Amino acid sequence: xFHSYHQIFQNKKITLFRSHNPSFKxxxxxxxxxxxxxxxxxxxxxxxxxxxxGIYNLGTGNANTFLNLAYSLFHAMNIAPNIEFIDTPIDIRxxxxxxxxxxxxxxxxxxxxxxxxxxxxxxxxxxxxYLSTNQYF
Length: 137
Prior knowledge:
Blueprint: H1 2-11, E1 14-17, E2 30-31, H2 36-49, E3 64-65, H3 66-77, E4 83-86, H4 90-93, H5 105-109, H6 119-131
Parallel strand pairs: 1-4
Antiparallel strand pairs: 2-3
Helix pairs in contact: 1-3, 3-6
């Protein structure tokens, strides 16, 4: 978000990777974006509640497209969307993941039931309270 914000701020546009997978349109690659405030909430819960040891996935459990991320960022900055697609670099193209989403069942079963920021809520908070004020923490 930090780099995308500055890219939009300076150039009034954002670049996203073009899809090289016929199952996905440009910008419809998906990630389970999670806000750092949610990571801290879960980390604190793990520290204080001491659930069984193990590896816990951490995400929202809901994948979003890069297009949704870009549109949300433009909206939070009050700038008309301007998205340019560029080729995914050859050296990572065959390894590129088109969909990632955390399975949150183990963390939920351990007792964590708090909600997570939506993509739009997290971006709005980060832009309004940190990036646009140059207060990064």
